[in-house]
Amino acid sequence: xxxxxxxxxxxxxxxxxxxxxxxxxxxxxxxxxxxxxxxxxxxxxxxxxxxxxxxxxxxxxxxxxxxxxxxxxxxxxxxxxxxxxxxxxxxxxxxxxxxxxxxxxxxxxxxxxxxxxxxxxxxxxxxxxxxxxxxxxxxxxxxxxxxxxxxxxxxxxxxxxxxxxxxxxxxxxxxxxxxxxxxxxxxxxxxxxxxxxxxxxxxxxxxxxxxxxxxxxxxxxxxxxxxxxxxxxxxxxxxxxxxxxxxxxxxxxxxxxxxxxxxxxxxxxxxxxxxxxxxxxxxxxxxxxxxxxxxxxxxxxxxxxxxxxxxxxxxxxxxxxxxxxxxxxxxxxxxxxxxxxxxxxxxxxxxxxxxxxxxxxxxxxxxxxxxxxxxxxxxxxxxxxxxxxxxxxxxxxxxxxxxxxxxxxxxxxxxxxxxxxxxxxxxxxxxxxxxxxxxxxxxxxxxxxxxxxxxxxxxxxxxxxxxxxxxxxxxxxxxxxxxxxxxxxxxxxxxxxxxxxxxxxxxxxxxxxxxxxxxxxxxxxxxxxxxxxxxxxxxxxxxxxxxxxxxxxxxxxxxxxxxxxxxxxxxxxxxxxxxxxxxxxxxxxxxxxxxxxxxxxxxxxxxxxxxxxxxxxxxxxxxxxxxxxxxxxxxxxxxxxxxxxxxxxxxxxxxxxxxxxxxxxxxxxxxxxxxxxxxxxxxxxxxxxxxxxxxxxxxxxxxxxxxxxxxxxxxxxxxxxxxxxxxxxxxxxxxxxxxxxxxxxxxxxxxxxxxxxxxxxxxxxxxxxxxxxxxxxxxxxxxxxxxxxxxxxxxxxxxxxxxxxxxxxxxxxxxxxxxxxxxxxxxxxxx
Length: 831
Prior knowledge:
Blueprint: H1 10-13, H2 18-28, H3 33-40, H4 44-52, H5 60-70, H6 74-93, H7 109-120, E1 126-130, H8 137-148, E2 156-160, H9 170-178, H10 188-196, E3 201-206, H11 212-225, E4 229-235, E5 244-248, H12 265-276, H13 285-294, H14 299-307, H15 314-323, H16 337-340, H17 342-350, H18 355-363, H19 373-381, H20 388-403, E6 408-412, E7 415-419, H21 422-434, H22 438-457, H23 465-474, H24 476-489, H25 492-508, H26 512-526, H27 534-550, H28 554-571, H29 574-590, H30 594-611, H31 614-630, H32 634-651, H33 654-670, H34 674-691, H35 694-710, H36 714-731, H37 734-750, H38 754-771, H39 780-793, H40 796-808, H41 823-828
Parallel strand pairs: 1-4, 1-5, 2-3, 3-4
Antiparallel strand pairs: 6-7
């Protein structure tokens, strides 16, 4: 019969649990559990769970269904509702709250603010803090939960999943954290959802990656059933649940300048943790910066390094880390295995990989400075040019490793590029060595970059020159690694092909010395090589000769170029023959043998013309114009160089255009047309800077400095000439360095720094004597006037002393000033 609320007083039910009160009402109504379930539209299991206290806080809707089915009056309804609320309050009281952080969170103000906004303002209902092991996801999650907890009426529930080893235990762990007694029931997650109901709650799931599938399934159900629930997860891998937002936790910011050393978050963390260990690294901030930079700002790595200051100095620590991260093993005695060392942190992630993922992860350690998808596919498959299936396979595995925070992806100009943190790469390299795959992987790696170098070579004088130069620059660390492997292992074919394929890039980007070393070592190996290498050896000899010439090693250059000439002729390679003749003409030109230079360039032109090679013909015109202005024939020079310039514009050859503009600008300045000269040289400078063509930059600055000197603007001239000298000196171009020194001497003399001017002339003369190159004919008149003016201002003894000091000064030290009685005055000339 229906309850009228008069059978018992309110005191009889005060403090009675909801389950007991429901059972009493059901019995008073003469209903079985089955009948009540039928009348209320609920399951029998739900009625039983509520009466036994297994489910303690029914949702308001369920409460109304029960009261209607029991035909309760207002007083009984109020009592039943009050009992439900008391049980709900009890549930809240046993919910697991976030732990108190052991240390201050340093350097994460921006990250806390950004993630707290996403959670606190309900921008997303599921936010995953992702990133590699040791980046500080848990600490950030803890800080965010503490900061925004007040915005959730029913609080914050903290669910630590790191101790959970069985995926099936994920839901029981959530149930325990929310205060629900774990049940041996297939509906446990639904019961958790019913308990949470419409409560405003932040659920934090910490360390999900090893139980990801079960955690994601639980989160999906909870978000669907609980409209006011927000979930914050920390995981090295994404959950991939609908509605998930991801925040990739970055490493701590590193100092970008000396001014930022003390305020850098990474430095501050190290100092704080080292101080806590009893060692305050005051006065060693530069070494601290070296340590944290090597560790790439990874918080766990920094904390482990700081812990070592109890036995090592910061300088010793920095030195140890240069070779290995093994010194960082052994961390907090209370930390889990995955936080005791970097190896443990990364090994935790590695253990979760599939066999295919582990293979790619290990092989990716061969890359230095990042890689492309094609490169990854080539290394994985062993195919120099991977096909669609190989690319698809590499893409799938790469995507998984990105999602698991083991590799990083960056996007620049529409191209994806990947890399590893140094600590992760070292771990991966260890896996590669353990698997015995180092040699195979290194060979595949070298094969890919040989193909890239040879493909790029064909584009380094065309319309896309700048793009290809940038591409090779972006892969320079990998190219160096491939070259080092080939030379170290005696891989003759790979060494010769790679070194020969890169010489033009080394020239254009100013890597003269490094390229020369590669070529000479590769050619030494090739002496024992087979005849199939003949075309590659010829190209390598050409490159070695060209780079030696650019460093003014004329004898070496001549030997290598003549060898290349003989090889190309034997091969019947007309284009190669013409190109070598052009380079031999350059050697003759710098040695002052203008007749030989012209003859070689004319022969080169004839060969290029026979091939219909417009680019080669344009270069021959430009070289003939270069020779003409050096010997003082400006009219012929202008005609030749204008023809070359117009052709280079059509061909899209940036290097050629820059050179023809330099020549035309130089011709104009010697003809007294200074405004025209400046316009042409500024165009060349801008183009050379855009291409990263360092020789073009150095020459343009040189000639612009002469223009300013002719205008009487000596301060501006000094600035431009100094920049030019620095570039030429870094490149190793001593022939042009001598000319710049002579021009600086002219400016010094005009500014009444006569001793310093004599010192500079002596330095230039010493350089010319060493390399065996005379003063270019066009420059002799200016040089003679300068020398006569200096001699007229100084007595013979002072002139000889300054001249002699310059001749014996190393080129690298010349810019420091004349080390004589007036050296302080002369040094001020450079400022």
